[in-house]
UniProtKB/TrEMBL annotation:
InterPro entries: YycH (IPR009996), YycH/YycI_2 (IPR042274). CDD domains: YycH_N. Pfam families: YycH. Residues 3-418 form the Regulatory protein YycH domain. This is Two-component system activity regulator YycH. It comes from the Bacteria. It comes from Cohnella silvisoli.
Amino acid sequence: MIEKGKSVLLFLLVVVSLVQSYFLAYSMPYMEAKVKTELDYVKTEPLGTEEKVEKLIFPEQLVLHLGNDKHTVFYPSTLPYYKLIFEKLQSREFKGLTQSSINSVNWDQIRREDQGVELRFGRAVPFGLLQRIFKIDDFLFSRDSIDRIWIYASKGRDEVRTFFFSADGRNVYESLRADLTIGDVEGYVGFGQYWDPYTTEDGKLYIPEKPITRLLEMQVAFNRYTTDQMQDNLFFDPGITRTIQNSKTGPQFYTDGKRGLKVEQDGVWLSYTDPVAPTNAENDMIDNVMAAVSFVNQHGGWNGKHQLVKEIESETGSAIRFQQYYRDVPIVSGSSMNFGYMQLTLQQGVVSSYNRSLLVLGSDVTNKHSRQLPGGDQLRKLINNMDASGRNIEAIFPAFKPLLDKETVILSPVWAARLVTGEVVILSESGPVAIK
């Protein structure tokens, strides 16, 4: 009898154990809600488009050396030639890289005598990121950064030479097995035979000999992201967000107790901060760029074409800036307003600040007017005056200066100048096209 009782008790214990296991297995959603973390909140609403890092890195200029000390310059807006050359080079292979001193080649002579194309990035691009754009072999010095690539057909030697220029100005890396022919180089150069002539005194700054008349002033309609949309995208739990200051005339401030959000310029500009504990560990440029692109993809997206243009190291971290383009022309706002770029500060891949425009420019334009940018001696005088003031210029390029209206943005052509400090300023406004 006792043994029978023990068997019944054991059976009941097994049944209870199975019932408990069932409830434990199938009640997890309820338990998960009790321990929900910041990362488990509802996925944010997609706003702008997502982008890959390789689409954000491209040359600021293509300088074509035509031989006989003749040159021209293509910008991303020089369509279709810029795009044709860039895409052709992306399909080529660059193997067998070897390091040399920058003084191992007479670059002044090459520039004057040999046909070639020079890709200028405007900022240092680590080899690790460059390999996402071009087919480049891994090699010993692949942690270096590059700001120029120069491909030329060596006169009298029936060969093509390809050099990658180190951003520190001391070394070059030659690809001994580049997948390029004399015919390729002649084809690139051929695109520039009848383009605007440019001259240079030092091989650094190229100046058009004639005024530039291909850019239009225009009005562009826009949409904008709302403050509520950005709160939903940037705060893990928008339900606990509170308003610190919300006025019709000044900036608007919001916080969830840790992170802060400021919207200013009449709802046009956003500044977001998320405090990150300071660290002495070294920032990795590639990791930070990848993390910055991923963050933008998840929090607002890209409102048009952008280009990686700057990294600034400071005590608060590494600031990564992306320049906005419209119709393949960069938008440079100067100091009058914040517009035309995104900037993120990161520490070891963690974003601590995020600044961006909330405007989304449309494709339809109105009130188009032909405008003219100065060239030749007039442009040289402007450059010399700025250099004389101690603000030395390392590059100039056509850009759009924005002026915000109620329902449109007016984009006016200007010459923009990047100083040796990395600052970008407006060198010259455009004027009416001269009637001949």
